[in-house]
Queue: 2 jobs
Job 1
Amino acid sequence: MNSEEKFFATVRTALGQAADGERPAKLFPQLFASPDPRPALARIAARGPAELAELAETLLAAATENRITTYQVSSLAEAEAVVVELVRQTDPEFSHTRHLLCHDHPDIAGLRLWQRFSRESVAVHTSFSQDQQLREKTIAACIGITAPEIAIAETATLVEISGPGRPRSTSLVPSIHVALLRSEKLVADLEEAYALLGQRQQLDSFVFVTGPSKTADIEATLVHGAHGPCELHIILLSEPTLPGDTAHSAQPAESAKQREDTPESTAPPEAG
Amino acid sequence: MNRPSQSNYTREAIKGIASTTLQTNLRSFQERLGQGAMRMWVELADPEKRRRVKASRMRTLDHLDIILASLAEKVRARGGRVYFAETAQDASDYILAVARKNQVKRVVKGKSMTSIEIGVDPVLEAAGIEVVETDLGEYIVQLAGEPPSHIIAPCIHLDRRQIGRLFADQLGIDYSEDPPTLTRAARHALREKLLSAEMGLTGCNLACAETGQISLVSNEGNIRMATTMPPVHVAVMGMERVVATMAEHRETLQLLTRGAVLQKISTYVSFVGGPADTPGETREFHLVIVDNGRSKILADPEFREVLACIRCGACLNICPVYGKIGGHAYASAYCGPIGAVVSPLLEGINKHADLCKGETLCGACKEVCPVENDLPRMLSALRHKLAYGSDQWDTRQMNPAEAFAFRLWRHLVTRPALYRAGLRLAALLQRPFIGKNRMISRMVGPAAGWTDSRDLPPIARQSFAARWRQKHPPTPDVAKKTAENSGEEKV
Ligand code: SF4
């Protein structure tokens, strides 16, 4: 008997089962039964612009409570202006040059930041999954930009799902995290967020982010900026609905395919 | 981690009570979080949630073999490795082997009580590997060379001046007692460690069998760092820290963050279960699932419930005893009421005899516990084992003389005539001990310990029963009944 079999034999004995009587999960479907997610999914799907606007209000209020800076914009051009302003105000914490790290996402590519900063000493990087220098770029970056797939209005929580082109570290290592959030990505509460996550076939690693990193370990005094970002900015984008827009698809947007529509984003020059 | 003997309980408790910093910090902490949690449960929109989560925790424990097998299968499918460790030693050996194989020189840790329980830090350090705690509070107590004293506020026993001096000495920064300045100093010092370590070592708040992921809750971001930036991530979990489904995960998580710090959700809840899919991030993931005495708890219906604990720390924030003595007296990875139950079960009831007996059994911990764990009941059960010994728990009877005295006492009180005669005798014998304040301040022999810290009122000249009879002379009816009931007296 190897150590793993022995471990299980001990557990089974403790439970009053035969030590070698393996109990296959198949025979205990009720253990893995979950409440039906369909009502929650139906709620999400049925939301129109008015309800989304309400969720946006909830998110904005919760964001303030959690020390999140928010901006409401109605086009990518406006979002771009917000980012540009933010970059210009930022003093890099860990390097001399201002480095920006962007998730490989069509919306962020749509901001065309490398064009905006082509004449400034701001380096704009995209987290392409093949990039072997990605780690160094991430560590140098003072701002990381993501486009979360889901956000929970009640608590102003972003759900950052990682995958190729969307590394975990972009929303973590840079001093400032900026999330470009489409209002269609809003759900009401944790239950709805879990319902959406449950729809994904292959659930990559993900993280719920609610506010900038913080600690209260020294005499219970709250300090923002512990080991993660010191600031979190949410740019809430509510565009007049475009044809073909899908808010919550069961699978992550295929960034490679969408990139074909936005040829500029395939190889952003990295201004230095 | 030093593992002091039982007498340390009293010694550390006395130290805790004498520390004004600890007393002030604990009081405000308990007032805010403990009382807050009590109120929050009353106001909870869905009062059934606690019962539901408890039921799911117990169902998971009853089927732990099935659920752990699913978890392992799913984690492996994600490209992670799973190791089942029967003992603390097995777990530490495995972690050391992984470190050696990857030529690890530095390990960054995210707060993990299980890692303290299995004692892996000294094992790694003995192999020449640097081990750095990265949770700010844990980092501070590590610099101070002390064990943590609270599940979620490890350095609650230190004030800002002590921390300021510590940082000035150890980090070479200018003395400051400003929390933001101190936090920034630690941020910069630890960032370097977090980015250069070859291995991250964390615990696991809740693993989910359905998805094959572990989830970790933090506010500081250090745990995200430790699970992302080093090439190797090892997570250690007690075998009970698992839920079957995401639906159960959601509700359990909601109780966890509320119980811990009254938050609807903490800053970060990360779900990982395998290597990251980006170059430059974690490329190897190991999950170490530890038994180390848990199966013994699982096997005993009297104590199985304690494994339903989700380690939120709420019981620490309400316990009147913990609120006075602080965490160091518990002398184990787990402190507060939960520690008082779990440490004796994991490490030996005799070893922690004083700890089992230190609580008031007021019941507050049960009320505040998100999963309504009946800790007072289990404390009583532990004391029962100490009083009478238990083969199952390898516990020897603590004080046979005391047990004998109580048997004698039972014999006495069930025989009223004998009892009264005894009382009269005792009233006579006590005379030389009654002091000027009409109290007994010093007893002799084995009873002396009782009067060391308190006075004993003497036995009254006239017993309560006698006075009662005087004031309310029995009606013939009652007199008859009484006579029947105390037949022995007539003999
Ligand atoms: S026993 Fe209950 S209150 Fe105490 S840590 Fe465990 S879950 Fe929290």
Note: The CA atoms of residues 170 and 401 of chain B lie 52 Å apart.
Job 2
Amino acid sequence: MVAQPDDPPLIAARGLTKHFGDFTAVDGIDVEVRRGEAFGFLGPNGAGKSSTMRMIGCVSPPSGGTLRVLGMDPITHGSQIRGRLGVVPQRDTLDEELTVRENILVYGRYFGLPRSVIRERATELLEFAQLSERADELVEPLSGGMKRRLTIARSLVNEPELLMLDEPTTGLDPQARHALWDRLFRLKRSGVTLVLTTHYMDEAEQLCDRLVVMDGGRIVAEGSPRQLISEHSTREVLELRLATDDHELYEAKVSDLATRVEVLPDRLLLYTDDGDAAAKIVHERGLAPLSTLVRRATLEDVFLHLTGRTLID
Amino acid sequence: MWNRALAHWLAHYRRVWRGTIISGILQPLFFLLAMGMGLGTLVDAGTSGGIEGVDYLLFLAPGILAAQAMQTAVFESTFPVLGAIKWQRQYHAMLAAPLGIPDIVLGHLVFVMMRVAMTSTIFVTIATLFGAITSWWVLLALPVAVLTGLAFAAPVVAFAARQRNESGFNMLFRFIVLPMFLFSGTFFPVEQLPTALELIARITPLWHAVELCRGLALETMTLAGAAAHVAYLVVLAGIGIQLALMSVRKRLIL
Ligand SMILES: Nc1ncnc2c1ncn2[C@@H]1O[C@H](COP(=O)(O)OP(=O)(O)O)[C@@H](O)[C@H]1O
Ligand SMILES: [Mg+2]
């Protein structure tokens, strides 16, 4: 299912814009998603990720620009497009008074699928989501992670070509997140095109072939996680915690050791291709840091560099 | 595609029907017992001998049929609608699938009509067993009850879709539904009211519904009278549906 260059994109947005009153939530973004890709929108809260996802999901009309999803215009063909999408919205829309299985059965009916087909798929999907044991229990008492898995299972009932996941793992504990990532990997391997939003850089790095970094309704960078890191960051980062309330005071004392230095409230980040060497010099200069940590650069660093802010505050 | 939205509400109802039994069936039955048999005995023993020469129980039963249609419809169009928008958000799930606003609204209204048909049928059956309904014409009062349900449900869906929380519903029940229940002819002829109130009572939808049901159950309805009442309810339902479509669209499509 690797995309051919002449394959039409599943999503093509040009100058896509969304206003709420005089507030601009999405400010003229260009996006192309090709078949078989796992594509991410990475950005902090309020970046405009959900607004974009809802426009692509044909439940929110764009205020400007052009948008084509599966080659069709959401304004005129919203229903047809939605019939071929799977949608995992940021906030669950499960019917908590129904059982786990009933939620899938009813959702399948929305797509006009025959009952026998839905029943069969429901059993498979519950297996896939590791919910078979809870199939006939009510949704309400399930954990957040289980509800999220159910929402994902449900979104697959129409065998969508394109799966849209808005913050699929936000609010879940690490274990539940890894369980979900595992399911998403399997989907990706089976050829489903994934579009997801996240403000977790590790999630973006794990899951996305390509992503855009969004901030304030705009796209500030685009590429594969690796590309973005090599373009906007050094290979390694040295984190320094010093015995001070104001790390800014120390910036000048280390700025020559790194390509770039970021000052955070509780530490300094030194961007350098050789963190250990820099750390050694820091010690030699007698700066006596409380702790030093050398790590690989991540998308978090890219984001910090591009926007001057961290992803999760 | 509205039938797909209906499928959801039917599945949902299979899970929650027990809770609806009290309000849907027992309550009108209690009214029938307390008012019809308790109060009715006094009324029938009075100088007029019943109301307009009719046993009070026979007078009351079709009134309760209409009032129950209103209550069922209003209840099913308030909390479930706001819940489907705000709490459990089932409307959003439908909208993410191929369903559109008309499917969502129509599917829900048809479900409400089915609920009204259910409670009405059960009530008519029980009232007949009690001897509170004696005419086969009451069979025509069943579709009237369903139409009444739609005439109330549609504008109430429009109202519910504009609410931020459930406090508006208390107002609706207290200042619209309850007064109509008490003063629109369910328990006594509106002619008993002071003229000004009688005029107000006669423009309420419940009065038209009560008159229709009672006229059919007591075999006193004329064709012209029936046509006027039906027309009133149909127009109200039509306007209500338009308003419901507008409100739900405005709330869901941002
Ligand atoms: N329906 C709405 N009305 C007004 N403002 C909105 C609405 N939806 C989103 N916004 C605003 O648009 C901005 C982007 O929101 P959103 O797309 O949800 O961002 P994200 O998903 O990246 O957190 C936020 O500032 C948010 O408050
Ligand atoms: Mg969001």
Note: DSSP finds eleven helices and 13 strands in chain A.
